[in-house]
Amino acid sequence: MVENDAILYTIEGIAAGILVITTAYLIISTTTIYTPGDTHISDMQMEQLGYDVLAVMDIPRTDVENSPLETYVQADNTTGFREDFLRLATANAQNWDEDIKFNAVIYYRKPDGTIDYYPFSDSGNMTGNLTGSEHLVKVTRRVFVTDTTNISPPLQVRNQSVLLEVLMWRD
Amino acid sequence: MARLMNEDGQWIILMGFIISIMIFFLAIIVNQSILVGQTTAESVLDFPKSDIQDLRSEVFESADSPEISDIREDIKALSLSRKYAVVNISNTTNSLTIDYNNGVTSYHETIQL
Predict the structure, then answer these.
(1) What integer pLDDT is reported at residue B29 of this predicted model?
(2) CA–CA separation, A52 vs A35, rounded Å?
(3) Into how many domains does chain A fold?
(4) Contact indicator for A67, A59 with CB cutoff of 8 Å
(5) What angle do CA B53, B54, B59 make, to 5 degrees?
(6) How far is A78 from chain B (nearest CA, A)?
(7) Are residues A54 and A96 in the same domain?
(8) Which of A21, A70, A79, B22 could disulfide-link to A66, CB 3.0 to 4.6 Å?
């Protein structure tokens, strides 16, 4: 008399094995997908922080005067911009030990229609301290300039809109 | 053939089978939810919210300035070369129109003055 129970046990064993392997594969692959989404989110937070800082700096303190940002650009006040930007960017309730670095450049339109730029401000002490692998984000703000007399490269003498570009990263 | 075994073992295997199918589906759901989170974060990053807010505030701030056509040329040229976006600002006597398009997002606004 032939016993065929063993065949059933073998088939059940194979089916169970496939199930376990497939489930384990799915679970392991979910945990590896998570990492790229995470870096995007921290970039996004940094970018939003930068836009917010520039927006806050571009609010006039009273109705009649220029915003602090416009004042810094028109006076070519590198130090004032640096202090204000870093104070706002690192202002948080927990007083975390975080160090934000930036480099700010201003783009403007020349009379012939081409775009040129001049370096405006940076977080200071950068020569020799850059690794070349800074993980940076770019934030921008348009600045309305009404007085070009103190700006070092010759901008056209008229009211104009320039673009302030800030590259910022955590050190 | 004489039944030498009782059938309890079959029930245990069946329950194990059902539970592994449940874990299988739960794993698929977890997998999908992470993909959804990533796509949402990416589309939020891609949407030029700050650019459009900045453009509007600059247009309104310069609206009654002299040399308005030069200022609008500045905004258009800087948008095209630095922000990769086509911008057009035009006005009639009682309305102001802003058009913005960066290839992914387009934005149009008309304000009655």
Answers:
(1) 86
(2) 26
(3) 2
(4) yes
(5) 100
(6) 22
(7) yes
(8) A70
Q: Residue A7 sits in which domain range?
A: 1-33
Are A170 and A98 contacting, i.e. CB atoms less than 8 angstroms apart? yes
Residues A87 and A115 in one domain: yes
Question: Is A36 a residue whose pLDDT tops 60?
Answer: no
Give CA–CA dist B28/A59, Å, rounded: 49
| CB A143, CB A58: distance < 8 Å | yes
Picking from A108, A51, A57, A118, the residue whose alpha carbon sits closest to that of residue B82 is: A108
Among B43, B78, B84, B89, pick the best mutation site for testing chain A contact (most A Cβ within 10 A): B78
pLDDT at A1: 61
Indicate if A77 and A103 belong to the same structural domain. Answer: yes
**Does residue A10 sit in the same domain as residue A62?**
no
Q: Report which DSSP code applies to A121.
A: E
pLDDT tens column, B39-95: 776 777 678 889 999 999 999 988 888 889 999 999 999 999 999 999 999 988 889
d(CA A105, CA A89): 18
**Residue A138 has which token pair?**
């770019």
Is residue A92 located within the same domain as residue A138?
yes
Give the nearest chain B residue to A137 (CA atoms): B45
Residue of B nearest to A158 (CA): B67
- Sorted by sequence, the CB contacts under 8 Å of residue B39 that are 6+ apart come out as none
C-beta atoms of B54 and A16 within 8 A? no
